[in-house]
Amino acid sequence: MLKTVNRVLLGLLGLGLFALGGGVLLGALDLPRHWDFDVPGWWPFRGPDDVVLGAEGRTRWRDEGWWWPVVIAALAVLLALLLWWLFAQRRHRLDRVLVDSEDGAAARLDGRALENVMEEEAQADDGVSRAHVRLTGRRTAPAARVRLLLEPHADPARALGRLNHAALAHARESAGLERLPAKVRLRAARHRARRAA
User: Fold this and answer.
1) Mean pLDDT throughout 24-30?
2) 133: which of 59, 65, 115, 193 fits an S-S bond (Cβ 3.0–4.6 Å)?
3) DSSP letter for each residue of 102-150
4) What is the dihedral of CA 173, 132, 142, 164, to 10 degrees?
5) Cβ contacts of 44 within 8 Å, gap of 6 or more
6) pLDDT in tens, 171-190
7) Stretch 63-69: mean pLDDT, rounded?
């Protein structure tokens, strides 16, 4: 859902900026006169000497009593929407994972503790310099985001296989989860080139 909202908003914003920029460019380069065509009467930019907002447009509503409250309310709503959109982008870290204890009650497993154990187990593998794990999703259906920093000698396919069969499998078993989907990002550690004598 969030991806669709992002794409629609970015598409509309891009389309609006493209239209505004094209309109300003059309007037600034005086293309209607050079290419011999007319623009509609409501078109604000007719030539290189036109301004984006003239004196009459800037001062038209200034003396009206309703003008400033409406401007402030509109800006407040816009700010609230932008803040909501900004915070919605963040993937929330899971603080707890619900574990089925098979006695009718669900136990809670600390999400940060599970992340730490997975990081330590992943870092224990040969060739993994550093690991970072973050649990996202729902408490009953968590997902993992894993970043591995690999040493120069590490084989990425083997490191990924060991992560899947060790850290992720153990976390899945210990939390009693049927599945634990993971997105893994591999990155090579920087190292200095060796000089041959």
Assistant:
1) 83
2) 115
3) SSSSEEEEEHHHHHHHHHHHHHTSTTEEEEEEEEEE-SSSEEEEEEEEE
4) -40
5) 23, 27, 50, 52
6) 888 888 888 899 999 988 87
7) 84
Section 53-73 average pLDDT: 81
Q: What per-residue string of b and e applies to 158-187 under the rule 16 or more CB within 10 Å gives b? A: ebbebbeeebbeebbeebebeebebebebe
As a whole number, the mean pLDDT across the chain is 83
Q: Select 96-188's CATH number: 3.40.1410.10, 3.30.70.1350, 3.40.50.1820, 3.30.300.10.
A: 3.30.70.1350
Cβ partners under 8 Å of residue 77, min gap 6: none
* CA dihedral sign of residues 121, 124, 128, 130: positive
Dist CA 95 CA 112 (whole Å): 7
> Whole-angstrom Cα distance, residue 5 to residue 85?
9
* CA distances (Å), origin 73, targets 9, 171, 184: 21, 49, 44
53 pLDDT exceeds 80?
no
Rounded-to-10 torsion of CA 96, 99, 105, 107: -50
- Judging by DSSP bridges, how do beta strands 142-150 and 182-188 pair with one another? parallel
- d(CA 83, CA 72) in angstroms, rounded, equals 16
Q: How far apart are CA 172 and CA 4, in angstroms?
A: 30
